[in-house]
Amino acid sequence: MAQNMSVEICGVRLKNPVMTASGTFGSGVEFSEFLDLNRLGAVVTKGVALVPWEGNPVPRICETPSGMLNAIGLQNPGVAVFAKRDLKFLEEELSRDQAGEGTKVVVNVCGHSEEEYIGCVEKLSDEPRADLLEINISCPNVREGGIAFGTDPKGVERITSAVRKAARQPVIMKLSPNVTSISEIAKAAEAGGADALSLINTLTGMKIDVERRTFALANRTGGLSGPAIHPVAVRMVYECAQAVKIPIIGMGGIRTAEDALEMIMAGATAVSVGTASFHDQTTVLSVIDGIEGFLERHQVSDIRDLIGCVR
Ligand SMILES: Cc1cc2nc3c(=O)[nH]c(=O)nc-3n(C[C@H](O)[C@H](O)[C@H](O)COP(=O)(O)O)c2cc1C
């Protein structure tokens, strides 16, 4: 029996439900030496903004128990260079069949202001290789003194609807877990017209270097990712799946097929593998193979039968 691994996110078909997590895979250039990108459901690119961002001073990553902290600061070359260099690479690397099917490209977008988000999204509207847009609303909002866009439901609804109007592609809003009620934020994004949600981004944390008696990261705080956050992410995916009707992409600490299946059973239509790719570049493939093996072992003919099966 051949199992169906394909899923649909806002009208876009993914050959399997496994993608990369933004910022942990670049645009796939280095990873393409170790794995065939054409096996993935989608490649999700590192956050890109309207103009280049420098990022934070070093040190900006450190290890923590079962995870890591990063404060890269969304360093990126700006959308013009990104389109010419990264999207061109993906255009060449990813083959499509006659029906235009193949591994999809999700472009992750960041901005300091509503205008910056819209400007970047408008530029990406002209790019045929950008199949879906993922809008990171954990970026610092300069108008509100650096507080992330994604922490207030009214602000989330406003930025979602502004981006939705400007975008040609389906819009996935990427939610921050650093809020009191993630389901309220999810509902606000849905009300603003989001086509899908992805969650979770990193959890704010801090590490002190006791030998040096100072912060381990120059930025003092950083975003916690990796296996340490997985149970928090599963809980949040579950809560959002109960609260909204739009599809959810689950991420946070996925290392194995079992981790991915937890997200799917909690209500995610697709999943992203992030920090685990730093440890083993081929994790994303073992997650795909492991899900396929699970379907076979349990005689499940369609992955879609598992989405949200635990209530
Ligand atoms: C080094 C690093 C850079 C990241 N950069 C981005 C980014 O540019 N945009 C974004 O939306 N998320 C970014 N993230 C968050 C990840 O996409 C993901 O949501 C998070 O790390 C949780 O998944 P994981 O535990 O599998 O890594 C970054 C994470 C890491 C570790």
Short description:
With 311 residues, the protein is α/β, with parallel strands linked by helices. 30% of the residues lie in helices and 19% in strands. The protein has one domain (19-242): Aldolase class I (TIM Barrel, Alpha-Beta Barrel), CATH 3.20.20.70.
Q: In terms of per-residue confidence, which ranges show pLDDT below 50 for 5 or more consecutive residues?
A: none
Task: Count up the helices.
Answer: 8
So, the CATH homologous superfamily? Aldolase class I
The percent of residues in helical segments reads: 25-40%
Largest sheet, spatial ordering of strands: 3-16-15-10-9-8-7-4
**Per the principal axes of the C-alpha atoms, what is the gross shape?**
globular
Small ligands present: flavin mononucleotide
- Summarize model confidence as the mean pLDDT: 96
DSSP strand count: 16
Proportion of residues in β-strands:
15-25%
Give the total of domains. 1
Radius of gyration: 18 Å
H/E topology pattern: EEEEEEHEHEHEHEEEEEHEHEHH
Structural category: alpha/beta
Return the CATH class: Alpha Beta
Largest sheet: 8 strands, parallel
CATH topology: TIM Barrel
CATH architecture classification name:
Alpha-Beta Barrel
Q: What is the first-to-last residue Cα distance?
A: 28 Å
